Amino acid sequence: MKEESDIRYDGNRHGDSCERDGKRMNKRTDEVLSLIASLDQGAQDYLNEYLANAPISILEKFEIVRMESQTTFIYEEEVIQKIFILVKGRVKATDQYLDGVSFEYMWFKPVKTFGAMEVLLGMDQFKTTLTTVADSCFLVISRDSFEGWMSHDEKALRLEAKTMGTYLLTQAKLARAFLFLEGRQRVMVFLSMTLELNGKPGMLRLSRQSIADNTGLSTRTVNRVMKELTAEGYLRCQGMRIFVNREQRTRLECETNAYWQGSGTWNRLL
């Protein structure tokens, strides 16, 4: 199929080089390529592969969007108009239930595309709520442009399908594994992973209700576990603030890794 432009993204050169046919790349394309070149090697490699066959017109349609921590940018059941590709930062997925309970069931590192799964499954609405848990940066493209790109780029489509399948498999495995953890273990795993992802080493701001919602425990059980962990020297509490120094954090991670197969199982999808 004839490409929309002869200007090609050269993934092997980390976005610094394009074949030109006498046209000059516009400012947006330059900004996108510069952003890709500034990412860590793992993110660069993924995007290089993802965009290897994309026409330059796709790069021109991306917007660079930066968000502060704790920004909810997608709501469950919201109509999908844009696709978000996380390239820097962290994001959490939260399901909302009719009784008001929310459950944070997955955390994401770059690179992750949000909205692609629903679009590829023929859905019109997002199926989860997504919030940044650190200052984050996204490449954002309209749904129409994304669908047009995927329909003509078999390599990108196959990579997206692989990522989507890995996500679904990981989510199912984590859900099953979490069922077999005792209340104390659930709280310790949740605290350990939240410490790693929240971007503020040493301190968390969490209510007992929030911990209960995200571990499937009652607030009474959470209160009991938190008192035990404080008495045993794993952490220190001051209201909703939970303080964990470096030695305590190492101890917490070592114990949770023993029955959780390492932190990577929880927060890495790729």
What characteristics describe this protein?
270 residues; alpha+beta; four-stranded antiparallel β-sheet; 20% strand; disordered N terminus; disordered C terminus
Helix and strand arrangement:
Blueprint: E1 8-9, E2 18-19, H1 27-38, H2 41-50, H3 56-61, E3 63-67, E4 72-74, E5 82-88, E6 91-96, E7 102-108, E8 112-114, H4 116-120, E9 129-132, E10 136-142, H5 143-152, H6 154-179, H7 183-197, E11 203-205, H8 208-215, H9 219-231, E12 236-238, E13 241-243, H10 246-260, H11 264-267
Antiparallel strand pairs: 1-2, 3-10, 4-9, 5-8, 5-10, 6-7, 6-9, 11-13, 12-13
Helix pairs in contact: 7-8, 7-10, 8-9
Overview of the structural elements:
The protein is built from 11 helices and 13 strands. The chain is α+β, with helices and mostly antiparallel strands and 270 residues long. It has a 4-stranded antiparallel beta sheet with strand order 3-10-5-8. Helix 7 crosses helix 8. The N terminus and C terminus are likely disordered.
